Each structure stands twice: as structure tokens, then as C-alpha cells.
Amino acid sequence: MSNLFRMLADLAEDPAKLEEFRNDPNAVMDEYQLTEEQKQLLTSGNQGDFIRAIMDEHNQKFGPFGGRLGCI
């Protein structure tokens, strides 16, 4: 699992981590060692770019027809 997916899963599952992210997103993103591009996607507010990046990362790991996004 990539650092980005790991962080997103933790934010979805752990209310304390989500609160930490709300209070200091840069510290949480640094904790997960996200790239500058990933940080920019998360903070830009551009949903289309974010969704494309998630799909690109998924496709790199599983191929365009492999795996289910919900299984990451």
C-alpha cells in the first residue's frame, strides 16, 4: 500500500488522526512521507486532479484492469 493510500485509510478509520490532519495537515503529510506532488493534490482542492492521481497510482500498482480500487 502506498503512503498516500495508507494515510487516506488511516484518516477514514481513525477520528483522532483525522482531527490531527485538520489541525496540522502538513505535519500529518510529512509523517506519511508524501511527495510534494501528493501534498499539492491534497491541499489544492481540485477533486478532478486528486481522483486522477489516485487512479494513476492504482493503475501503476494493479494495471488499468487489475484489482478493485476498494481493495487497496
Task: Please provide a written account of the structure.
By secondary structure, this protein is an all-alpha fold. The protein has one domain. It contains 5 helices and no strands. The protein has helices at residues 3-13, 15-23, 25-31, 36-44, 47-62. It starts with a helix and ends in a 10-residue tail after the last helix. The model has no long low-confidence stretch (mean pLDDT 86).
Cα end-to-end separation:
7 Å
Helix content: over 70%
Main sheet specs: none
What structural class is derived from the secondary structure elements?
mainly alpha
- The radius of gyration over CA amounts to 12 Å
Overall pLDDT confidence:
86
What shape does the CA trace take? globular
Taken together, the total number of domains comes to 1
Task: Name the beta content range.
Answer: under 5%
Our count of helices gives 5
Poorly predicted ranges (pLDDT <50, ≥5 residues)? Answer: none
SSE pattern:
HHHHH
Number-wise, the strands total 0
Brief summary of the model shown:
The chain is mainly alpha-helical and 72 residues long. The protein has helices spanning 3-13, 15-23, 25-31, 36-44, 47-62. It is built from 5 helices and no strands.
List keywords for this structure.
72 residues, mainly alpha, 0% strand, globular
Helices and strands in order:
Layout: H1 3-13, H2 15-23, H3 25-31, H4 36-44, H5 47-62
